[in-house]
Write a structure and sequence with these properties.
Elements lengths: L4 H6 L9 E4 L2 E4 H23 L6 H24 L2 H4 L18 H19 L3 H19 L1 H6 L13 E2 L7 H4 L2 H9 L9 E2 L2 H23 L5 H20 L14 H23 L22 H12 L15
Antiparallel strand pairs: 1-2, 3-4
């Protein structure tokens, strides 16, 4: 076995030696940086797509003031609700439910409450919700791809042991209880002379999901350009494509999850199945009853020409959307309170 150790070390993905850097009295956390960077990227992509759909630049940032806090709260609530024993059960500390920087953000809670925040922001700006969600959805995928690297910094949410060349090295003090209770762990201890293994590698599920999300982003952008999707169908495809990937990635994870076995599947796998079916049903219904794309992204039906300086590709997309060369200029002062 010892002769295999150098090969395993070389052919593996290392984990960061630390995920927190102290700058004076202030801790700078890799997890938080990934979340923040993901949000910034999502807003930037959303602004570009919103402008191409006929919206006014800056409105996505205004909506994000509502959507981002709601989304973060929802993501944390989902995590705490599905793993409540870690905080409110025997040996748990309820105050740790507030420690977001330790990891633990459930995407579906974030999407659900984030959409509520987006709805509030959209109403205040006189914006239709469905075209807004269609503009934002691809950027959310990129944000998720970036945010998953926070799991790499925290050495969490990895998959089962593997000897693949891209296996992820995890420090033994980050071994999950689920892994330590597994037959894989017992076999490794037995093979190592009763000593806990130090050189085992795991499926890098953070990387799998990052790559899947980026591929899904490219697919959705192509589909949207090719078929001029509207009325929430981009959002529906986002849900369908993401849940397809999340389902199989979730299946190979070996992290500690309270709802680990519901009728033979992890709770998040069931969540993915249900959401995929609902999104697919909505897509079919929408395509039949609401064909095409909205001519206006505003509740009062007004249109806004692409601002001068926009790139030609975005301008072409906006012209295709039916502003019809009306020349009607959207006055930001009529959009509602910020």
């Amino acid at each position: 076995m010892l002769t295999e150790i150098p090969r395993v070390i070389v052919a593996s993905i290392p984990s960061p030696s630390e995920g927190v850097w102290n700058i004076g009295p202030f801790p700078l956390r890799g997890y938080a940086l990934c979340i923040i960077l993901g949000i910034v990227v999502a807003i930037w992509i959303g602004e570009k797509r919103w402008q191409a759909r006929g919206g006014t630049i800056g409105e996505v940032q205004d909506v994000a003031i509502w959507a981002v806090p709601f989304g973060l709260v929802g993501a944390r609530l989902y995590h705490v609700a599905t793993d409540w024993k870690n905080y409110f059960g025997a040996g748990g500390d309820p105050i740790e439910a507030l420690y977001v920087w330790h990891g633990g953000l459930g995407i579906w809670g974030g999407v659900a409450l984030g959409a509520v925040g987006a709805w509030i922001g959209a109403r205040r700006k006189g914006i239709r919700l469905l075209p807004l969600l269609d503009a934002l959805a691809p950027g959310v995928l990129v944000a998720q791809a970036v945010g998953r690297w926070g799991n790499w910094f925290n050495q969490e949410l990895y998959g089962r042991p593997t000897d693949l060349p891209w296996g992820l090295k995890i420090d033994s003090d980050h071994f999950s209880g689920a892994y330590q209770a597994s037959q894989d762990y017992r076999d490794a201890v037995a093979a190592n002379g009763g000593i806990p293994p130090e050189f085992v590698t795991f499926h890098p599920t953070f990387l799998y999901e990052c790559l899947w999300n980026l591929a899904a982003f490219a697919l959705i952008i192509w589909l949207d350009r090719r078929f001029r999707l509207g009325h929430g169908r981009v959002m529906a495809i986002y849900v369908m494509v993401y849940t397809l990937g999340r389902g199989w990635i979730e299946y190979i994870r070996i992290d500690d999850v309270q709802l680990n076995d519901v009728l033979g599947l992890r709770f998040n796998v069931w969540t993915s199945i249900v959401l995929f079916v609902l999104a697919a049903a909505y897509y079919v219904w929408s395509a039949k009853n609401l064909p095409g794309r909205e001519e206006s992204v505003y509740a009062d039906g007004r249109t806004t020409p692409v601002e001068a300086g926009a790139d030609s590709e975005d301008a072409g997309d906006a012209e295709d959307e039916g502003d019809g060369g009306t020349g009607v200029t959207h006055d930001a002062s009529t959009a509602g309170d910020d």
